[in-house]
Automatic annotation (TrEMBL):
Residues 8-210 form the Phosphoribosyltransferase domain. It comes from Paracoccus onchidii. The keyword Lipid metabolism does not apply. Belongs to the UPRTase family. This is Uracil phosphoribosyltransferase.
Length: 211
């Protein structure tokens, strides 16, 4: 079966938690708690295609061939800083994953993303690599982060966000058609400042209590 480029995770718990997170008056603590909870559910969906193999184990009753994940540990890559909010919950679900960070800022002249930090696990070419950033807005930083990861060998990539704009999804589809995008919602679009509408505001500010 071919993988769709965009998967909207419509699980009722995801949708319910997301609605609460969108509300303008949710506290920082509440937002963070919901983000952690929702990321556990998103992790479940984004890892559906992981390959299994079998291993021989001994139960208290008998020996059996039991399923176990095949291959190298996953790589989780957080796009700083808001990606860290999604990362924490996913790591709870996949504690043995290897973790990397990508930092980008927007050049005020060219408006293009510029790398200021990149530290990623080794052997990316042999790992499923899940890139996390809560907001897929213009898609500029996501595309740049995936460019950087491909340059470092990543081949089997997924992109996971909480909200996506149609513009961001299209930009990703054009630049990286081989990277499936998972989101809890495809929102209406972007405002003049590149914010997702209806969205939830600035995800980093909301999870870290900054302004
Ligand atoms: N980044 C955010 O935090 N929110 C948006 O709506 C867009 C980008």
């Amino acid at each position: 079966m071919t993988q769709p480029h965009l998967t909207v995770i419509t699980h009722p718990l995801v949708q319910h938690k997301l609605t609460i997170m969108r509300k303008h008056d949710v506290s920082t603590a509440g937002f963070r708690r919901l983000l952690r909870e929702i990321s556990l559910l998103l992790a479940y969906e984004v890892t559906r295609e992981l390959e299994l193999t079998t291993t021989t184990i001994q139960t208290p009753m008998c020996e059996m061939q039991a399923p176990t994940l095949e291959g190298k540990k996953l790589a989780l890559i957080s796009i700083l800083r808001a990606g860290n909010g999604l990362l924490d919950g996913i790591l709870e679900m996949i504690p043995s994953a290897r973790v990397g960070f990508v930092g980008l800022y927007r050049d005020p002249e060219t408006l293009k993303p510029v790398e200021y930090y990149c530290k990623v696990p080794n052997l990316l070419d042999q790992r499923m690599t899940i890139v996390v950033d809560p907001m897929l807005a213009t898609g500029n930083s996501s595309v740049a982060a995936i460019d950087m990861l491909k340059e470092r060998g990543a081949k089997n990539l997924r992109f996971l966000c909480l909200l996506a704009s149609p513009e961001g999804v299209e930009r990703m589809r054009q630049a990286h058609p081989d990277v499936p995008v998972y989101t809890a919602s495809l929102d209406e679009g972007l405002d003049d400042h590149g914010y997702i509408v209806p969205g939830l505001g600035d995800a980093g500010d909301r999870m870290f209590g900054t302004k």
